[in-house]
Amino acid sequence: MQPSAARRERDQLVPRLAPGWERFGLTLSPAEGFLLSRIDGATSWTLLREIGGLAPGEVDRCLEGWLAEGLVLVDAAESPHALAASELQTAPSVRTQGPDIPTGDAIERQVDPGLEIPVEAQRRVLAFEAGLERPYHELLGVGTGVDAKAVKRAYFQLSKEYHPDRYYRREIGPYAEKLDRIFKKIVEAYELLTDPTTRAEIERSIAARAPEPVPTPEPPAAAPASAGANPPASPPSAPAPSAGRRALERLHRQFRIPDAILAERRGRAREFHAAALVALHKQRWLEAAGSARLAIAFDPSNGDYKKSFGDAQVRVNEIRVKELLDRAEIAAHGNAPQEALRLFEEALHYRPHDPAVNARAAELALDTGELAPAREYAERACELRSEVGAYQRTLGRVLAREGLREKALASFERAVALDPKDNRAMDEIKKLRRTPRRRIGGMR
Amino acid sequence: MSRVIGIDLGTTNSCVALIDGGKPVVIPNAGGYKTSPSLFAISQDGKRLVGHLAKRQAITNARNTVYASKRLIGRRFDAREVQTAIKLCPYEIVRGPNDDPRIVISGKTFTTSEIAAIVLREMKHVAEEYLGEPVTDAVVTVPAHFNDTQRQCTKDAGKIAGLNVLRIINEPTAAALAYGLGKTAEQKIAVYDLGGGTFDISIVELGEGVVEVLATSGDTFLGGEDFDRRIVDFVLAQFQEREGTDLRQDSMALQRLKDAAEKAKCDLSTLNSTEINLPFIANDANGPRHLNVTLDRATLEGLVGDVVAQTMKCVEQCMTDAGLGPKDIDHVVLVGGQTRTPMVQAAVTEFFGKRVHRGVNPDEVVAVGAAIQGNMLVSGDRDLLLLDVTPLSLGIATFDGHFATLIERNTTAPVQKAHTFTTTRDNQTAVKIRVLQGESDKAAENHLLGEFVLSNVPPAPKGEPEIEVSFDIDANGIVNVSARDSATDAEQSITVSATGTLSDEEIEKIMQDHETHELPRKK
Fold it and tell me: Could you give the residue ranges of the DSSP H alpha helices within B37-105?
């Protein structure tokens, strides 16, 4: 069946990302994110269906949805070489021109004369909302040097325009949410610019940033170690946000990376993550972990990347542990107990709760005469798997070497109880019983 | 367009206003008074009395007359204010099933919301008689220090009274709105509110038609009644000295004396001297006794000087909170009938070093402000806007029993604030978020609004998970709290609907009860 004319026409369209698309607050699946990352303003709709990583129907659904949301705009295809161009580009070129105001078209499309908010006001709300991430000074429309009164005046004026009470009980559809968002931002800007400390910091940063934008890292995890005792309480959380800490958080919000750079970084992150997903699929764990780590480096806020990294890292660790254990056994049999112990201990770092590894480490520590770690590992093995006689026997040997005759006997007896055929444990018991108590227990 | 009335639900007096033809109108009641006493009584013969009628028999029927119940609304029975009231009030206050104070008069038990509802209903009727049409929408004022529970109980009272309460706003804010109507110049205003039973001081900023509260402070047991009590005590002592008779045990005489003391107090606002003349106040073996005492302004000032000084201490405190000195204040607005006393005006004038504003009637200004806000909301008036603030700080309890503030008091709403928290134990998989309101550093001393658990936090060493707790207050004052684990994006949230001390079912039941007790009215 031939595709309809309309469909054919659409296939030639070249989607591109709308300016300010970062602000749509998207929640995408990784696959959708991948498709989004393919949209570069050069690849046509048809080709996206091919390379979008989704079923063609899904690609259509996504693109249509994004078109409707205004996230994606379309132009007619200019040349048949669009694919070649896109292949040459590694990172998606996102067209962002800094703190942009949407085009008149984008605004006009959203204006709804049926609502109980004048269309003039709708246009102002849409334009203001589009620039909501501007620096605080710009948001309030004040210069850096102005006095507190001017800041307050600007705040009051904007409040009168955008406070949600303006349209109390009016049917204003999506504008209710927009006004809410705008007003909250206005309050935030006003608060930061009326606090002399934060305002000074903000203005310093503007002055410092003037020639070239310096990317600053994402805000660090606000999980400061609390001083003092930590009662084992189950209620939540962490220290109270001190005034200084709050000021710091505000600053982090202010030192935002410019949108264009951020968009590019996110684009790179998605590229790496797509690679990570492929590697995961092909079970190339090390590669997957590496790619995911890079994705996180470019976009630390994305939970998906962290999850992929975690998935890959688990597998990588498994491989590494297996390798360590192999090498450890070789060393143990090759009469290099020190080396073997070091390797087992390294394996324990990844698998602290593996009883077998603990038991082996205990045996080797016993061989090298390191009794304190030997006892620790042996005890942990017994704790983890109390029903294994061999672990009890190992613990018994360590205890016997430490001169703790009674405890050692108890361990050996437990070993025999668990495994009546454990001749080595029985031998140890006989040996201990023969030995005069005085000499073995002679610690003083 | 439906009308919105503004109601000042006062501790001792209430007032109702509306905007008519763009101008505020304070509505007089059937007796011609623009304010009505916030009193409710059940008379000896079982009649329900409200307002002036209740006041006239308040002392002779003291045990069955409820006054100043606003001091009790939304509080717990064990609260200090309730215990103080139990000591001072002649009517009986008992512990209710929800640990709330309930009032027993004439063998019947009333919740505090019910009493407030009776007064609100009276104000609603006053407005309906004036307009000749039903009224349902209202803006009601409360003191600035009221917490969410007290505000919700006031809203519940409105519901019981058949009113749709659009907003609860702060009294000083309302006063500033009334004062600020039609003014555009930037200015800072001190609102000094000495009512019948309570004192409040607020510093408010006006500019571009926007009203913003900067700080507020007050005393819930300080007001005009203290003036009356001092005068009554003074006259009783004089009478006893002269006639050898103690009138304290005679409730009829006390009622007459209290009425006369209040009138004398008002007279002394304009006159230098007045007479309290109560013939046949008592009878003894020598025949009838008459009370005749002359009271001059200087004597009155000697009696109440310390009460006024006490209010000025609050004023100083509030100015310190706002970080302002007397010179920073452009205008002083007086609210409450008691501010008519020359001594009060003199003290305020001296402190701020400027004349007090006399353009608005101190008894009516709050109701007018409420009416302006109500009208502003429904008419979409673009000349004036009230930036309302959160009355108390909001936050969550932390592991060490501390209170972590996320939204500080006096923050303009709508607002959203977030902060990142973490776990305190290794492999902790659930965190409990306890949402609190109050000003104490200790979580236990603040008011619990609600709690929820964020579970399925992936096991991790303590301090590692990032849990973002976010508070969001919308334009209607509804608080939404959410917690999100940044590793998994798992999210839990609650809407902290302020709860009064009554459940919805209890309110329903009370509403039905009240319909049967509705006073018959002429159409």
Answer: 52-56, 80-88
Q: What are phi and psi of B71, to 5 degrees?
A: -65, -20
pLDDT tens digits, one per residue of B40-51: 999 888 889 999
> Cα separation of B114 and B119, whole Å?
9
Question: Do residues B443 and B402 touch, judged by C-beta distance below 8 A?
Answer: yes
CB B86 within 8 A of CB B167: no
Site of tokens 């090759």: A334
- CA–CA distance from B221 to each of B76, B174, B197, B262 (Å)? 17, 21, 6, 18
Residues 6+ away with beta carbon under 8 Å from B72: B81, B82, B85, B93, B101, B103, B112
Give the separation between CA B279 and CA B296, rounded to whole angstroms. 20
Lowest mean pLDDT among A77-81, A128-132, B143-147, B309-313: A77-81
**pLDDT confidence band for B235 (50 / 70 / 90):** very high
Strand partners, B435: B396, B450
Q: Which residues of B touch A232 (CB under 8 A)?
A: 425
pLDDT < 70: residue spans in chain A? 1-9, 20-31, 34, 42, 50-55, 75-106, 209-258, 435-444
Measured in whole angstroms, the distance separating CA B55 from the mean position of its chain's CA atoms is 20
C-alpha B271/C-alpha B262 separation (Å) is: 14
Strand bridging mode B467-473 / B479-485: antiparallel
The answer on pLDDT for B501 being more than 80 is: no
**Strand boundaries in B81-153, DSSP class E:** 92-95, 101-105, 108-111, 137-142
Q: What is the pLDDT of residues A410-424, one digit of tens each?
A: 899 888 888 888 888
Using the Cα atoms of residue B360, residue B365, residue B369 and residue B372 in order, give the sign of their dihedral: negative
For an interface test with B, the pick among A184, A237, A246 (most B C-beta atoms closer than 10 Å) comes out as A237
Rounded-to-integer distance, Cα B7 and Cα B119, Å: 10
Instruction: Report chain B residues whose CB lies below 8 A from the CB of A218.
Output: none
Q: What is the pLDDT of residue A231?
A: 37
- Check: CB of residue B179 under 8 Å from CB of residue B359: yes
CA of residue A364 relative to chain centroid, distance: 39
Question: In what helix (H) or strand (E) does residue B454 lie, and over which residues does it extend?
Answer: strand B447-454
- Reported ipTM: the value is 0.77
Q: What are residue B275's DSSP bridge partners?
A: B294
A152 touches B at CB < 8 Å: yes
pLDDT of res. A26:
64
CA distance B481 to B470: 6
Tally of CA atoms within 13 A in the half-sphere of A67 that contains its CB:
14
A111 three-class SS:
coil
**Mutation target among B417, B454, B481 for the A interface, most CBs of A within 10 A:** B417
- How sure is the predictor about B205, in pLDDT bands with cuts at 50, 70 and 90? confident
Tell me how far apart the alpha carbons of residues A199 and A206 are, in angstroms, rounded to a whole number: 11
- Catalytic residue numbers of B read 8, 70, 171, 193
Query: B323 — alpha (psi -120 to 50), left (phi > 0) or beta?
Result: left
What is the least distance, in Å, from the CA of B459 to any CA of chain A?
13
CA distance A387 to A182: 64
pLDDT tens per residue, range B353-370: 988 877 778 899 999 999
pLDDT score, position B328: 92
**Cα-based distances in Å from B477 to A166, A203, A356, B412:** 15, 33, 60, 10
Sheet holding B431-437, edge to edge: B403-407, B394-397, B431-437, B447-454
Which residues in A lie closer than 8 A to residue B1 (C-beta atoms)? none
Whether B380 sits inside 8 A of A232 (CB atoms) is no
Residues A146/A122, Cβ–Cβ less than 8 Å:
no
